[in-house]
Specification:
Blueprint (H helix, E strand, L loop, with lengths): L2 E4 L2 E4 L4 E7 L9 E6 L6 E6 L5 E3 L7 E6 L4 E6 L8 E7 L12 E6 L1
Parallel strand pairs: 2-10
Antiparallel strand pairs: 1-3, 3-8, 4-5, 4-9, 5-6, 7-8, 9-10
Length: 115
């Protein structure tokens, strides 16, 4: 798997987690990279994007609570999640946003938020 997500876990509502995404075969700095999530019974959705310029974008459901960042030196992309809610429970994946560049999804990392 080229992109590996980690850092998930069980957290109480209102808590925080930081997810990490590492890239074993290329760099992140020339492609739009996103954090996606898939909750049970739902389609996978894009929640945060970081562009090659460093600009970011968020789904309305996470805006103001999640922060995506990229560290070129570490060749990693992060998702800082604050104010977690039970509805944030999902498997989180990182991947390139443009379908042409997508890699296999891998197992992702499970985030469970208890109420």
């Amino acid at each position: 798997v080229q992109l590996q997500a980690s850092g998930g876990g069980l957290v109480q509502a209102g808590g925080s987690l930081r997810l990490s995404c590492t890239n074993s075969r290329s760099t992140f700095d020339n492609k739009a990279t996103g954090w996606f999530r898939q909750a049970p019974g739902k389609q996978r959705e894009l929640v945060a994007t970081v562009l090659p310029s460093g600009s970011t974008a968020y789904a309305d459901s996470v805006k103001g609570r999640f922060t995506i960042s990229r560290d070129n030196a570490e060749n990693a992309v992060y998702l800082q999640m604050n104010g977690l809610k039970p509805e944030d429970t999902a498997v989180y994946y990182c991947n390139f946003v443009t379908p042409l560049y997508r890699t296999s999804w891998g197992q992702g990392t499970l985030v469970t938020v208890s109420s």
